[in-house]
Amino acid sequence: MSNWAERIRNEVGTAVIGQEIVIERMLVALLANGHVLLEGMPGLAKTLLIKSLGTALGMQFERIQFTPDLLPSDVVGTMIFQPKDGQFVPHRGPVFANMLLADEINRAPAKVQSALLEAMQEKQVTIGGESQALPKPFFVMATQNPVEQEGTYPLPEAQRDRFLFKLIVDYPEQAEEFEMMKRWGQVTRQPELKAVSSGEELLEIREEVDQIHVSEEIQSYILKLVRATRRMAEGENPEQKYLSYGASPRASLSLYQAGRALAWLRGQDHVSPSIIKDVFLDAMRHRVGLTYEAEAEEITPDDALKIVLDRTPLPTNSFA
Known about the structure:
Elements: H1 4-13, H2 20-31, E1 35-39, H3 46-57, E2 61-65, H4 72-76, E3 77-82, E4 87-92, E5 99-103, H5 110-122, E6 124-127, E7 130-133, E8 139-144, H6 157-160, E9 163-168, H7 174-184, H8 199-209, H9 216-233, E10 243-245, H10 249-265, H11 273-284, E11 289-290, H12 292-296, H13 301-311
Parallel strand pairs: 1-8, 1-9, 2-5, 5-8
Antiparallel strand pairs: 3-4, 6-7, 10-11
Helix pairs in contact: 1-3, 2-10, 9-10, 10-11, 11-13
C-alpha cells in the first residue's frame, strides 16, 4: 500500500495538470474520512479533478448539478408507488454512492442543503420516514464559485463546519497552462482514466493511519491554535479583532485527523508541528467568521489565521 498515493496521483495526472497541493489535501481527506469543499473560479478543472479522483479510486461516483429548483428528493431519493402490490418502495437518489460530487453546492436552497447535511454527518439519509445507511466509504466533494453571487444560497455555518477542508483552487502556473494547450489543444476527446485502487484498499489503509502517533504536546498545540481563534473573536487584542467567531471543537478533531493522514502520506510515523501548520489554513478557513471591520480592511480568513499561527508557540518537546 506504500505506493497508493503515487498510483492515484499518476492516474489523476493524466487528466489534470498541476494542482499537486490540492490533490494531496484531497487524499488526506479520503484517509481522514472527511468531506472537501473546493472554491475557485470557473474553468479551473474542479469538477474534472473530483471526477478523475473518483475514477482512479475505483469507487462508485455520482454527480449532482445543484440548481435553485433542486428538491431534497432529487438528492436522497423518494418513495415510489408500485401498482402491482399496492406498496411504496424507496427509490434511492444519487447520494447513494461512494463519492458524491455536489457541483456548485451554493446554488441549492436550504432544504436541499439540510438533506445533504444529514448524509455528510450521519452517513445516512431518511426516505419515507426510514433511515437508510449510505455505502462505505462515503465522501462529499463539493464545489462553489466565489465570485458569482446572484442566485446563490451561502452555506450555513453548520454545514461548512462538516467539511474537513476548504481548498482554494487557483489559476495554474504559466508552464502548466502551456502544457494543457500542448496536450489537449488539438484533440476533442477526454483522457480516459482507469481504476488503480478500490474502496476496500482505502478502508484498509485507514487502519494504518489510525496507528500514527499524536503526542500530548501536539494535541496541546492543536488546542492552543483552535482556542486562539476564539480569543481573537472575543477581542483579546482590540486592534486585531478580525474574527466575529472562532472555530468549534470539531476543528480540533479535524486538525488531529488530518495531521495523522498527512503524516502517513509523507511516510512519517508521528505527527509533527510542521504537519499541523501545513493543514491549518485548509482545515480552518471555513470555520471562522470575519468582522465587518476586517472585511472593510480586506482582511481574509487566511490573514487572520496566519496571525494566530505566528503567535502560537511551537511545542518544545516535539520535532518539527
